[in-house]
Write a structure and sequence with these properties.
The chain is α/β, with parallel strands linked by helices. It is built from 16 helices and eleven strands. The relative contact order is 0.12. GO terms for molecular function: racemase and epimerase activity, acting on amino acids and derivatives.
């Protein structure tokens, strides 16, 4: 465990408004200095929609959003040593921001801690100051939606629901994934790409004994999205996080759940919304359109958009710093996400369409037996991936039994003998719209939801 006198220091953040480069500097007492850069495109550096009366308020909001990125992105470097104390050379978070950061870092690094037998990282605490923000309630941004796109089914459903509601939508991406750019092109909507340059020393220190593992990446993307919204003139940031993201993987020794998807959870969304309200006022609404729905319900809705079947992918092998690791197609056919999406999509499209997407019948793949046992909740823990609940997998298999394309398939016959059937009433409850959720009140977006 971390030495008692170890420290992690937030040194400085600087945003160059002429080049769009945001430079973040950190220091760990064991592994030294780290620097990260985010590059915002030139199109975001001019604000023709901003009048002089709002400019000072806007600048205050931009500065706070920069600080949120500085603080949240630091988790990628803090994780190397899990230092005992967190320090700031300059601006500190307020009390609300400090709680949000501590909660997100503790929960977001819980998977790393679990894999290294470290217990819950309750020592992660941020010093907070008394609230002294100047509100941005008089900052009015254009009525447009910024939608983070990940290349999978969820964000595509969000895009189509917003499009049907008549929203002015622009897509948002952190990184340089070619797959995301190809999927974005298929939507025929504009895309804002933010380049992220993670310090190359992370790889070096990992070889020197630094901790390495999962970080709350959606939290980082969220704070970057809000700054992008302020720079580009969007009053809403619409994520695609579902209610299934609230379900954890394993329980830690202190009774808290280790949740791979914590920064996609309702708890994170609520807390970040509180931070934004306190620090930015009502300038930017941050929310998830898909919050009321299970993964299975979202997959059913996605099945209505066959124009994306050939381009979408949720397989994580597509998303690595060095590029995609899928040599053949968009789905590796071996990981938890491939297996989960395969089963959940199967009841809602033809078998021919399904095999065209994945290449083969994953349920018949003997090498995936242990993986399916975990996903169906029969053996082992829920995989540390962005997958839904075992109940959703079981419900999908129950629905698949009535699919005429699968009646004679031995793979289905085998798994239906292993997996308990889900009752019709339980399936209906699972597929129903859930509470709680949030929708912006600036304009009527009620039609983005379906029943």
């Amino acid at each position: 465990m971390t030495a008692a006198d170890s420290t992690f220091t937030f040194k400085q953040a600087f945003f160059d408004a002429e080049t769009g480069v945001l430079t973040l500097n950190y220091q760990d007492s064991r592994f030294g200095d780290f620097q990260e850069q985010l590059v915002f495109p030139a199109a975001l550096l001019q604000q023709p929609w901003l009048d002089d009366a709002q400019r000072n308020t806007w600048l205050i909001a931009v500065n706070r959003a920069v600080q949120h990125i500085f603080w949240m992105a630091g988790v990628s470097y803090y994780k190397t040593n899990l230092a005992a104390e967190i320090q700031f050379e300059h601006e500190q978070p307020c009390e609300t921001e400090a709680r949000w950061l501590a909660d997100t870092w503790q929960a977001g690094l819980a998977e790393l801690a679990h894999e290294n037998d470290l217990g819950w990282l309750s020592h992660i605490q941020f010093p907070g100051q008394v609230h002294n923000h100047k509100h941005s309630d008089n900052l009015t941004l254009p009525g447009r939606s910024l939608v983070p796109i990940g290349g999978g089914k969820d964000s595509l459903v969000t895009i189509e629901r917003l499009r049907q509601a008549g929203e002015d939508v622009t897509l948002f991406q952190v990184g340089s994934s070619e797959l995301i750019q190809q999927v974005s092109k298929a939507t025929e909507l504009p895309l804002i790409q933010i380049k992220r340059r993670v310090d190359a020393r992370l790889k070096q220190v990992a070889e020197q004994g630094a901790y390495n593992g999962h970080v709350p990446i959606t939290a980082i993307n969220s704070v970057v999205a809000v700054l992008t919204a302020l720079l580009g003139g969007f009053d809403s940031v619409a994520f695609s996080n579902e209610c299934s993201a609230d379900v954890g993987n394993v329980k830690a020794d202190n009774g808290q759940w280790v949740n791979h998807q914590y920064s996609k959870s309702w708890a994170f969304e609520q807390q970040y919304r509180e931070v934004l309200t306190e620090s930015l006022g009502s300038a930017v609404d941050y929310y998830s359109i898909l919050r009321p729905y299970s993964e299975l319900t979202i997959v059913q809705e996605f099945s209505r958009y066959p124009q994306y079947f050939e381009v979408f992918s949720s397989c994580n092998r597509n998303f690595h710093l060095g590029g995609s690791r899928n040599e053949n197609g968009r789905w590796c056919g071996q990981c938890p996400k491939c297996a989960f999406v395969f089963v959940c999509l199967a009841p809602f499209i033809s078998r021919q369409q399904l095999l065209a997407i994945f290449g083969h019948d994953l349920l018949a793949d003997k090498e995936l037996w242990f993986l399916f046992m975990a996903l169906f909740g029969l053996e082992g823990d829920k995989p540390f991936e962005c997958v839904g609940e075992a109940l959703e997998m079981r419900a999908a298999l129950t629905l698949l039994k009535d699919h005429e394309d699968w009646q004679k398939q031995k793979s289905l016959q085998y798994w239906t003998q292993q997996v308990p059937t889900v009752s019709q009433s339980d399936i209906e409850a699972l597929m129903a719209k859930q509470q709680p959720y949030f929708l912006p009140s600036k304009r009527d977006l009620s039609s983005v939801h379906w029943s």
